[in-house]
Design goal:
By secondary structure, this protein is an alpha/beta fold. Helices cover 56% and strands 15% of the residues. The chain has a 7-stranded mixed beta sheet, with helices on both faces. Helix 4 packs across helix 12 and helix 12 crosses helix 13. The termini are far apart. The relative contact order is 0.22. Pfam families: AAA_17.
Length: 248
């Protein structure tokens, strides 16, 4: 009972995520805003630890992404593929396990994710992903790991790769993400706002909020798709300082 109470008390609520985005803008970090012709803004926030773009580019061996549903992780992964960076999608581990158990990934994804963590530990999905990442690293300089879900998974990757692991948090307000997910309608859980909030609560329950807070790089995906893709490309090719410089 004690552990359960502690888990609930440390979980950020859905409504708090939007406030976290605003709060980050007031912190003492390098934040740059780009604005499109339609008045929409797109921000990239760079936290400490990287002194130059060239240092970041050479240091990034494994890039992880974290973000709530609809934030734009999938688009970031797509830009990585287009740039020749292999992508290991942690959600694919869960979908594969669903199929192995004869279950539909569209409806049982969350159930199996929870089951794996209960059966193999909170870092189970990260642990299953590591051999795949290491295989890619044998023939590639950089690998992207798409979709970390918790601070425990973050610890597993940082233990494995140290300073060569960089975590990127992709963020957007709930309303923006809900609109994207409802338009996309990929999963059965993406059918209405109430379902989306439940899905988000589940993600936060895994410890995603803590992982987002510990990210090395934060990109607020609130502008146009073209702006977002441009910042991702700059991040991959030259590092976060280059992203900030381009928007100065």
């Amino acid at each position: 009972m004690g552990d359960e109470t502690r888990k609930v008390s440390r979980r950020p609520q859905v409504g708090v995520v939007n406030e976290r985005i605003k709060r980050r803008q007031r912190k003492n970090r390098a934040t740059v805003t780009g604005e499109s012709g339609d008045g929409k803004s797109n921000q990239a926030t760079v936290k400490g630890g990287f002194n130059s773009a060239s240092a970041v580019a050479t240091a990034m061996k494994v890039i992880g992404t974290v973000g709530l549903p609809g934030s734009g992780k999938g688009e970031l992964a797509e830009v990585a593929r287009e740039s020749g960076i292999p992508v290991v999608t942690m959600g694919d581990i869960i979908r594969g396990e669903c199929r192995a158990r004869g279950l539909d990934p569209a409806t049982e994804h969350g159930t199996i994710a929870k089951a794996l963590r209960e059966e193999e530990g909170d870092d189970a999905i990260a642990a299953r992903s590591l051999p795949v990442v290491e295989d890619h690293l044998e023939s590639n300089g950089v690998v992207l790991v798409d979709g970390l879900r918790s601070d425990v998974e973050l610890d597993r990757f940082r233990d494995a790769f140290g300073e060569e692991f960089v975590l990127v948090s992709v963020e957007a307000p709930f309303e923006t993400r809900a609109e994207r997910l409802l338009d996309r309608g990929r999963d059965a859980s993406d059918t209405d706002v109430k379902s989306l909030k439940k899905r988000e609560e589940r993600e936060l329950d895994f410890g995603m909020g803590e992982a987002m807070d510990r990210a090395d790089v934060v990109i607020e995906n609130t502008g146009t798709l073209a702006e977002y893709r441009e910042k991702i490309t700059l991040l991959f090719e030259e590092g976060p300082d280059a992203v900030a410089e381009a928007n100065a």
